[in-house]
Amino acid sequence: MLTEDKPRLFVNRTMAGQLLATRLLHLKKEKGIVLAIPRGGIPVACEIAKLLSWPLGAIWIKKIGHPYNPELAIGAASADDIELNQNAGNIPQDYIEERVKQIRATFNEQQMYIPEHARNPDIRNKYIILVDDGIATGSTMLTAIRFLRKKNPSRILVAIPVAPHDAVRHIEALADEVIILHQPYFFTGISAFYDEFPQLSNDELGHYFKKNA
Prior knowledge:
Elements: H1 13-22, E1 32-36, H2 41-52, E2 56-58, E3 61-66, E4 69-78, E5 82-84, H3 93-111, H4 116-119, E6 127-131, H5 139-149, E7 155-162, H6 165-174, E8 177-182, H7 202-212
Parallel strand pairs: 1-2, 1-6, 6-7, 7-8
Antiparallel strand pairs: 3-4, 4-5
């Protein structure tokens, strides 16, 4: 695993993506796909895809929150898969089904703003660079890796600007390679490492895919 020695504050997600991209230049001759976890991962992944001249795509995944504590994940849903964890033991099935339905409706809305080829790219036997704008607990990234493994990529490299040590250890156990620019010992949240960390609109999602076209 590769890391930077000195901490750095990112101006924005574009800067974070540019810094990560320079660490991945050795892959320029490979044939692969850069997959972003929307929404925040898309500006970061865009810079990597642009520098490597790789296609940019997205993996649609979102946690399923507990009915009484939405921040507590009981699992996650993708566009075509569901994974539940131990927190889902006593949760009514109709609640889970309704949340998955809502999550997928959101995915469908977001996908309208990006090119069709990027919505659900074929990753069989492809080198995948999986990107987000940061990791807090790592649960979403771990689930994304497990979902992707079912589609038989040749290799999964996780590229992240910032993540706490504990989360990275778990990701390293599942991914083929992990590149993290910063692993702070005191982690207060992803936004603390960015000067600019806005919520992205659907129109902005489309803008980044147009930049990569």
